[in-house]
Amino acid sequence: MVFLARSSWSKDTTETLWRFGYSARLLKTNRFRTAASNTSFPAVWMLLAQYSGRIPGLFVVVKKNRFFTMPETVEDKANLELYSPHPEVRGMTLLDREAFKRTVVVPVLKVKKEIVNTLLKSLKHTVLQRPGLKRVVEDPEDEDSRLVILDPHKIPEFSLGESEQEVLKQLNVRPEVSKYNLELTYENFKSEEILRAVLPEGQEVTSGFSRVGHIAHLNLRDHQLPYRHLIGQVIIDKNPGITCVVNKTSIIDSTYRNFQMEVLAGESNLVTKVKENNIAYELDFSKVYWNPRLSTEHGRIVELLKPGDVLFDVFAGIGPFAIPAAKKKCRVFANDLNPESYNWLLHNCKLNKVDNKIKAFNMDGRDFLLGPVREELSKELQLLKEEQKTSFHIVMNLPALAIEFLDVFRHLLAGEPCSTAGLPTVHCYGFSKHDDPAKDIQERAEASLGTSLDGRCSTYLVRNVAPNKEMLCISFQIPADVLYKRPCPDEANPASKRLRTSKDFSEEKLPS
């Protein structure tokens, strides 16, 4: 067995490793702990594998079908990164699971079988944790012993320090790390490991996705498209419950807020069920807009509402603002231009038993504001008394266009303004690529409203949509001088009419 202590890292060793591509930071030797047994070669080797990936020219010999201690031999041939599939899978476009089989070398401790459970508990953070892999295997040379497989990536931290050695000493276990041939199959690799091995080296690997019920939604880059069907199948294999993978093939349509998509793998059923903030929704993902990344924002707005408040949802979709607001005993007016969204909104209202609390509309957003919203506000604000605490909220979640709709509020209502407390609060969403997105959103809102919002609005960063593109929400009470069209003085005080004389009536009777 080879032991490589901190003191054995000579200048020559450092220079040699530097030629293999290691950074100076990695080569700082304070990562390695000196202990009674020192730091073994496998510990150092595994640390290097963890941080550097491939090590050209560094290879640990593994004798086939045998269990034995680490040899001193280091051969001049390429070593695969631990837990990386075989390089022959590079460029694969049709998934061949058999090609991912590989044998790797892992560190083990030889332990009497009667104390295995005790050892596992004592070293629970150091033993191997990999999907489908046993942590304990039989010792081919001793039927009374077992081999406890350790996590190679944690060996540097483990490194048989004094405390760990004390545990082993108490259990009568030799503090000797040995190695074992471990067969890995497709099932043992993580999706990111598989895709990194398949896609061209240096290319971005996509293993993340948006989950919408049983559907995984991807936004693949151009260089990933030749591998799209393989990527889809890997995601299904590695994510229980995912039975369909789709890739967006066009930008979101600003009219109906849906987009074209391609089914990459699995079933073609795009009608799904989702749960957000403890409320269930059903939808056809190919025909309506749904973004699971907006769950927190939906909850934030609903949290602002109190029972008895009134919510106008101008671009309601299938109801992620409207339905929880109705559940909170608010009165809700919800609208969407997309007929499919409108139908699923009605469906989800019934599903959540709030269909009698929501008035749904299938109109253009501008027409909805000029019609039902204006009518309801005109009626409600006139009846609103100073002591009443009803609040009116208008949600406009169409980030690509919503700010352009704000001009509708200019003189939307006629008559004398209500109390300041009764003025509706608008929550309007927008995208910005500006260096100061909050300032940009405010200035654009002010341009649509025709007034300053300084000191009268707040902006909230919802999420980063793409590099240099933010989604924000600007909230403000509509200023009274914007919302109300006050009558002109001449209209308010018309001139008194002249009294008609008998001469006037006589002139009316004269023939023309």
Task: Describe this structure as you would to a colleague.
The protein has a 7-stranded mixed beta sheet with strand order 15-14-13-16-18-20-19, sandwiched between helices. A 4-stranded antiparallel beta sheet has the order 4-5-3-6, covered by helices on one side. Strands 7-8-9-10 form a 4-stranded mixed beta sheet. It contains 15 helices and 21 strands. The termini are far apart. It has 512 residues and is of the alpha/beta class. Mean pLDDT is 79; it is low at 1-80 and 505-512.
SSE arrangement:
Layout: H1 11-19, H2 41-52, E1 59-60, E2 74-75, E3 102-112, H3 116-122, E4 136-138, E5 145-149, H4 155-158, H5 162-170, E6 178-184, H6 191-198, E7 210-212, E8 215-218, H7 228-238, E9 244-248, E10 261-266, E11 271-276, E12 279-284, H8 295-304, E13 310-313, H9 322-327, E14 331-335, H10 339-351, E15 358-361, H11 365-383, E16 392-396, E17 413-414, E18 425-432, H12 437-449, E19 457-466, E20 469-477, H13 480-483, E21 484-485, H14 489-492, H15 502-509
Parallel strand pairs: 8-9, 13-14, 13-16, 14-15, 16-18, 17-21
Antiparallel strand pairs: 1-2, 3-5, 3-6, 4-5, 7-8, 9-10, 11-12, 18-20, 19-20
* Discrete helix count: 15
Quote the distance from N terminus to C terminus.
Answer: 130 Å
Largest sheet: 7 strands, mixed
| Percentage of residues assigned to helices | 25-40%
Mean pLDDT: 79
Uncertain regions: pLDDT < 50 for 5+ in a row? Answer: 1-80, 505-512
- This entry's quaternary arrangement is single chain
Q: What is the percentage of strand-forming residues?
A: 15-25%
- Principal-axes geometry comes out as elongated
> How do the strands of the widest beta sheet line up side by side?
15-14-13-16-18-20-19
- The whole-angstrom Rg is 35 Å
Quantity of strands, as a count? 21
The structure class reads alpha/beta
